[in-house]
Amino acid sequence: MFSINQLVFKDIINVRKLEIESGKIYCLFGESGSGKSTLLKMFNSMLTPDQGKITYKDESIADLDPIQLRREVVMLGQDPIVFEGTVRDNLLIGLQFAAKEVVANQVLTELLKELHLAKDLDEEADKLSGGEQQRLAFGRVLLMDAEVYLMDEPTSALDENTETVIMDLFTKKVRNAGKTAIMVTHSKGIAEKYSDEIIYMTDILMKEGTLS
Amino acid sequence: MNEMLEMTLWQLVTAYIFIVILLAIVRWRKIPREKEIIIATLRMTIQLVLVGYVLMFIFENEKMIYSVIVIIIMEIFAVYNIYKRTKQSLSRDLKKIIAFSMVSGTLFAFLYFDFIVVRFSPWYDPRYFIPIAGMLIGNSMTGITLGVSSLIEGFTSRKKEVEAALMLGAPPKKASQGIVNHAFDSAILPTINSMVGMGIVFLPGMMTGVILSGAGPMDAIKYQIAIMLGITGSVSISVILFLYFGYKTFFNNHAQLKL
Ligand SMILES: Nc1ncnc2c1ncn2[C@@H]1O[C@H](COP(=O)(O)OP(=O)(O)O)[C@@H](O)[C@H]1O
Ligand SMILES: [Mg+2]
Q1: What would the pLDDT profile of B20-69 be if each residue is shown by its tens digit?
Q2: Count of other CB atoms within 10 angstroms of residue A132
Q3: Residues B94-148: pLDDT tens digits?
């Protein structure tokens, strides 16, 4: 699905080779500051590499329309963002941004239940706690019906129980639909439990001058 | 014909008593502003006297070229003033767009005002051309200055929000809609407010001028209404042009935020 070749970004990223296969769940694992978020942003053209190539479905990402790409390769950023408006507005805004069809209230209420968010659709979203906002942002991305999900530490603000609920929900949805996911995580346990493959930053990052 | 009151030089000098009072108060209260007050008063006096001579010359030699030169100088001054008054640093592209929207917005509104609404005769009659161009340009300048600050501030403080929208597949236009709307609001609000206060809180320059020159209040008011509408048009067109092109300078051709 993705293929990385001699990718360089500033002095942060230097990856010789990396293949991402369709229909699998990957965990990107590495210590803080090792460049996980930076690398993740290359997969949907939020950042463009200085050198080297990254392809999506055999086409160079640099040549693809970034907006269309991001509608297929959707991303949840590291900081949960809540937009002005209600819980409903916040869930639907992604579909509106991507010019996709909005879904019925029933679907949204169902999703809130699955996210263990005991909130009303009409509640103002900025009143939610940090962990609730993270789940709201998570739900917004889940609704996007994408090919690939790039998730940057999606459970960082959650307690262990809620984390399990969210990860179960996410992996079940991705697997049932046969989609692909690349997830950054701070937890080795999560990586081992939920991913098909763990990508260790220490394994893929090359030191300067070791490029063959 | 005109019943404009003549003011002697001595009468004018007596008006400076206000500054003397101010200076006395400032000295008495030990506020260290004497220098600034004196300089501001001197500058105001000298600048206006010089402008007076220039206008006298232009009014006496009613030539198209002089009116055109004056409006060009005003536009250049206004554009540089926007650059100077904006506290944040401006990109090259944004500067170009400021200049473009300022000049084309004010010129469009002005020419419409000149040829369709009031129909000066001749169209470059400096007695109308210069003050009205000045008012449109001055107000658009304030509007764009506010719009520029608000736009840059918006992109800086809401960077994460814009990026979250892009990550969901939003085109830059949609991702920055909230910021652009807010910038439009702050740019246009003073103009809207001044329409609301018109005639009650202030009798603005145009009307004061027309009344002082001996015209009846109703004529003055017709002019004032027209000029207020002209100002609103000029401000909105220049601000809309600025925002329409301006937000794009915050994105590169990969639809990434350049901050
Ligand atoms: N746009 C950027 N330009 C330069 N340096 C950056 C940029 N973004 C992040 N960094 C730096 O790159 C390194 C990796 O950051 P990041 O990808 O956020 O790491 P992680 O997500 O693994 O914690 C950090 O040292 C960070 O300060
Ligand atoms: Mg990170």
Answers
A1: 999 999 999 999 989 999 999 999 999 999 999 998 999 898 899 999 99
A2: 23
A3: 999 999 999 999 999 999 999 999 888 899 999 889 989 999 999 999 999 999 9
Q: Tokens at residue B146, please?
A: 């506010």
Question: ipTM surpassing 0.90, yes or no?
Answer: yes
Q: Which residues of chain A register pLDDT less than 50?
A: 209-212
**Rounded alpha-carbon distances, angstroms, from residue B240 to A94, A151, B110, B147, B154:** 27, 37, 16, 9, 16
Task: Give CA–CA dist B44/B16, Å, rounded.
Answer: 12
Residue A212 lies in a domain: no
pLDDT of residue B197: 76
- As a whole number of angstroms, the distance between CA B141 and CA B109 comes to 14
Q: What is the CATH number of the domain that holds A39?
A: 3.40.50.300
pLDDT at A212: 41
| Residue A12 lies inside a defined structural domain of this protein | yes
How many structural domains compose chain A?
A: 1
- Domain range for A61: 2-204
Q: Which of A68, A83, A97, A138 to mutate to test the interface with B (most CBs of B within 10 A)?
A: A97
In a domain? residue A210: no
Predicted pLDDT at A44:
94
Between chains, do A67 and B170 touch, taking CB under 8 Å as contact? yes
The residue contributing the CA closest to ligand 1 atom 2 is A38
- If one residue of A8, A12, A204, A205 were mutated to test the ligand 1 pocket, choosing by the most ligand atoms within 8 A of its CB, it would be A12
Enumerate the domain spans of chain B.
1-61, 63-250
Name the residue facing B168 among A62, A79, A144 (closest C-beta). Answer: A144
User: How confident is residue B227, by pLDDT bands cut at 50, 70 and 90?
Assistant: confident
A81 located within any domain? yes
Phi, psi of B122 (to 5 degrees): -70, 170
